[in-house]
Amino acid sequence: MAIWSSFEVGEDENENFIHLLEPASGTSPSCIIFFTLGGVPVLSQFPEVFYKEFLERLEVKTNCATVAVPFDAGIDHSAIADRMAENMLSALTVLEDERGYSQSLPKYAIGHSTGSRIQVIAIATSDIGEKLTGAAFMGYNNFEMRETISSAMTFTMESEVGGGSEGSQSPPPLLNLAARAAAALGLEFKLSPTEVDQMLQSEFNKELLNNTMLFQFETDNLDSTPSFMANFVGDAVRPSLSIVAGTHMTVSKSVF
User: Fold this and answer.
1) Has residue 159 got a pLDDT over 60?
2) Beta strand residue intervals within 70-151, DSSP E
3) Which residues have C-beta within 8 Å of that of residue 2, sequence separation ≥ 6?
4) Phi, psi (degrees; rounded to nearest 5) at 129
5) Among 80, 179, 193, 247, which is disulfide-ready with 149 (CB 3.0 to 4.6 Å)?
6) By C-alpha distance, which of 108, 117, 106, 107 is closest to 140?
């Protein structure tokens, strides 16, 4: 059985719990994976619940150690990405200095949904990108705020259907209200979708980009993968694309 644990990084009010999944075999891992969860806050805090099957299957297949990095909900994705990058680097220090992980282990970033967006910003604006061998983004979400709120609706509705609540497929009233309020007040993420696209073109590590894979689900209206790929049309260095069966929330239920 896979080994889950957690430890704290940061100081005082900036302390964060990092979730660690280590090889069930007890052997040294083949690599380190930094996993960033979907943007619905409850998903981010409990990877061992909502992404359990996916992460444990990944460990079985690759003998990897996975560092699941939660992040707080908020509209300032620039600041959130800064904190995430700091937490990733701090977690790496703990693994290498306190747990005896070899500094030569390959390191990868995997993100889902809005978690992929946060990772893109973190990689482009911090030193974490230089530590990575490759990256994978699943159901990449770079929509405006009102559209991203629908990811919470999707999670809620798909969870109810999956749990047998037949007929309960209407978005929760509170989330509907949040989406309307965001549109009415003109609320938007920092950075905007256009700014993230510009960041991808000018600041994302080119060597890492060449070792980046995007996974696009066949049935997914919350996916911005085509716009990600459009940033590199005709470029010699560009990410790879794989289209897989499933919906936006497939990865939080099982996967691939």
Assistant:
1) no
2) 107-112, 134-138
3) 21, 22, 23, 24, 55, 56, 59, 60
4) -60, -30
5) 179
6) 117
C-alpha–C-alpha distance, residues 214 and 151, integer Å: 19
d(CA 51, CA 124): 26
Q: What are 82's two structure tokens?
A: 């800064």
The span from the CA of 17 to the CA of 117, in Å, is 21
- Pairing relationship of beta strands 3-9 and 16-22 according to DSSP bridges: antiparallel
Q: What is the pLDDT of residue 156?
A: 54
Structure tokens at 160: 């109810």
Residues 166 and 108: their CA atoms lie apart, in Å, by: 39
pLDDT of residue 108: 98
Three-state SS for 62? helix
| Sheet with 3-9, edge to edge strand ranges | 3-9, 16-22, 65-69, 32-36, 107-112, 134-138, 212-219, 240-247
Q: How many residues does the chain have?
A: 256
- Alpha-carbon distance of 33 to 110, in angstroms, equals 7
The chain-wide mean pLDDT, for the chain, equals 82
∠ CA 107-40-118, nearest 5°, is 40
Which is more confident, 226 or 190? 226
Q: What is the tens place of the pLDDT at every residue in 176-195?
A: 544 555 454 455 667 899 99
Q: Mean per-residue pLDDT for 17-39?
A: 89
248 and 233 Cβ atoms separated by less than 8 Å: no
